[in-house]
Amino acid sequence: MQKFSILWASTLILFMGGCSVKHYSISSPKVITIKSPKLKFSDTGYIRYEGDAVQVELFTAGVAVEKISIDEKVCVSAGCMSEEAFVKEYLSEYYPRDTMRRVLQGTPIFGGIGRDETCSGAVCQFIRNDDMDIMYQRKDNEILFKDRLNGLMIKINDIEDTNETK
Prior knowledge:
It is a single chain. The protein has helices at about 1-20, 85-90, 100-105, 160-165; strands spanning about 25-35, 40-50, 55-60, 65-70, 75, 80, 115-120, 120-130, 135-140, 140-145, 150-160. It has one domain: Lipoprotein localisation LolA/LolB/LppX (outer membrane lipoprotein receptor (LolB), chain A), CATH 2.50.20. The chain is of the alpha+beta class. The radius of gyration is 19 Å and the shape is globular.
């Protein structure tokens, strides 16, 4: 009887929250390019978010090849880690821990320092010091993040915009 109770309790816990599916209120198809020393990708994908939770699903030839989920932890195919460890390993040790989340959501990085709204109709941030040379540009339907010193680039375009230019 005790084995049955333990099995029942374990099943109940599993269904109540262990494997619950996150529901995102914003989900949009994008053309995503990520170039970093540890990750190289350029194809279609989805960026989904709800509050601070963000998920990026990357596709190549219509097949899902990678999923990056950012919530309490950051999970990739290689496993889960803290957001701080992810940014340090995949981007740069000099960036704040929420840098990737903010770039994917198109919100200001580094507390909004270096912000310039006169950048060809876009909102830009320029952050330069001995450890980074960042240009972060956000305009309608496009996000571009470049760090020349750390060899990083993240570019996100709405799929509708890329189809109109062809």
